[in-house]
TrEMBL record:
Name by which UniProt lists this protein: Snaclec GPIB-binding protein subunit beta-like
Species of the source: Drosophila kikkawai (Fruit fly)
Keywords for this protein: Signal
One protein family per Pfam: Lectin_C
Name of the encoding gene: LOC108076876
Positions in coiled-coil regions: none
Signal peptide: 1-20
Annotated C-type lectin domain residues: 35-160
C-alpha cells in the first residue's frame, strides 16, 4: 500500500512538473498556410499592385518577397500545385512586395523601404524604362522577377505573414484539466 501511494505521489509530481512547462508551437494566422517556414495566403483574385498590397496589409501581412532560392523554389512549386498558370509569359505573374516608387529603379521592400539581399531577376531585368516601378514574379525567360507598371495590370498575389508562437498549458484544477492557449505576438 505504501509503495502505491509513493508511486502516485511521484506520478502526480511528475505530471505537475511536465504541465508547468507546457508546449510551444508555431502557427499561422487564420486563413494562412505553412509553406516551408513561412505563412502564406494565396489569392486567385486578380488585382493591380496597389490593391494587392492593400489587401495584404489589411491581413496584417505583406506581398511575398523571396528570402533565398530554396524559398523561391518551394513557393513556386506550391503555387503550381494550387493551379496558378505559370506559362512562359509575363502575363501569368504574381505580384511581389518589391517596388521602386519614387526611387528610379532602386527596388526595395514596399512596407519598410529596406534593401532586399536576394533578387532573382529574369534575364534583362529590371528594365529601366520609366514607370515600371512594381515587381511581379513569372516564368518569363526562366522563373524570376520582372519590373512592370503597377497598374493597369492585374495579377493574382500571395501575402506572407509572421508566424505566431502559441504556448499550450494543461493546468490541474480540482481534479480536472484546464487547457489554456496563449498566443505570443
Amino acid at each position: 500500500m505504501a509503495l502505491t501511494i509513493k508511486k502516485l505521489i511521484f506520478l502526480s509530481a511528475l505530471l505537475t512538473f511536465s504541465l508547468a512547462f507546457g508546449q510551444v508551437k508555431t502557427v499561422c494566422p487564420a486563413g494562412f498556410s505553412f509553406i516551408g517556414e513561412k505563412c502564406y495566403f494565396v489569392s486567385y483574385e486578380k488585382a493591380n499592385w496597389f490593391n494587392a498590397d492593400r489587401k495584404c496589409h489589411n491581413l496584417k501581412s505583406s506581398l511575398v518577397i523571396f528570402d533565398d532560392d530554396k524559398d523561391r523554389q518551394l513557393l513556386t512549386a506550391t503555387l503550381k500545385v494550387l493551379g496558378l498558370p505559370f506559362t512562359n509569359s509575363w502575363q501569368d505573374s504574381i505580384w511581389t512586395g518589391l517596388t521602386s516608387l519614387g526611387m528610379d529603379c532602386n527596388f526595395v521592400r514596399s512596407r519598410n523601404g529596406k534593401a532586399v539581399p536576394y533578387t532573382p531577376w529574369s534575364p534583362n531585368q529590371p528594365n529601366p524604362i520609366a514607370r515600371k516601378d512594381c515587381v511581379a514574379y513569372a516564368n518569363y525567360n526562366g522563373f524570376g522577377y520582372h519590373n512592370i507598371e503597377c497598374e493597369p495590370y492585374e495579377f493574382p498575389f500571395a501575402c506572407e505573414a509572421k508566424t505566431l508562437v502559441t504556448e499550450k498549458y494543461l493546468c490541474l484544477r480540482k481534479e480536472e484539466f484546464l487547457e489554456v492557449d496563449i498566443n505570443i505576438l
